[in-house]
Write a structure and sequence with these properties.
Length: 142
């Protein structure tokens, strides 16, 4: 195996690991968030916050390795946009970093990942409710 092949394999492995972390942390967020609501525990709420921020960090790991794979250097402004408004600026990154014909699948994949994360969070929360018969989430508001 040449050094170039080994480097490419490393980048691909890091991207796969980051995607798995994003999905796993999304599931854990749903679990801990529902548990914190049921138990009114500030400690669990803090842990839920960690699991909510974790996918953002893993997403940056994925973007860093994707930039290496595609030979694209992100500007500081694009990085700031990704942090502040990921739903807009990650597709902008894909549009700029991909050649024509490969942009739409990358952008569609990103939105599919967002939906998968939402679904896993909901599944985690509903699993907690299913394992606690008779439990209801507190209602807020007036």
């Amino acid at each position: 195996m040449s050094p170039t092949d080994a480097a490419t394999e490393t980048v691909l492995r890091r991207k796969s690991t980051a995607l798995a972390a994003i999905l796993g942390l999304s599931l854990l967020f749903g679990i801990t968030y529902a548990m914190s609501l049921l138990s009114n525990s500030p400690g669990l709420a803090g842990l839920a916050l960690v699991f909510q921020i974790g996918p953002l960090f893993a997403g940056f790991v994925w973007l860093h390795n994707d930039s290496i794979q595609h030979g694209y250097s992100r500007s500081m402004a694009l990085n700031a946009g990704i942090v502040l408004l990921a739903l807009v600026y990650v597709p902008v990154y894909f549009f700029r970093s991909r050649p024509p014909g490969t942009r739409a699948p990358a952008i569609t994949g990103f939105f599919s990942l967002v939906l998968a994360c939402m679904g896993l969070s909901l599944m985690g929360a509903y699993a907690v409710l299913a394992l606690n018969p008779g439990a209801t989430l507190p209602v807020t508001g007036s």
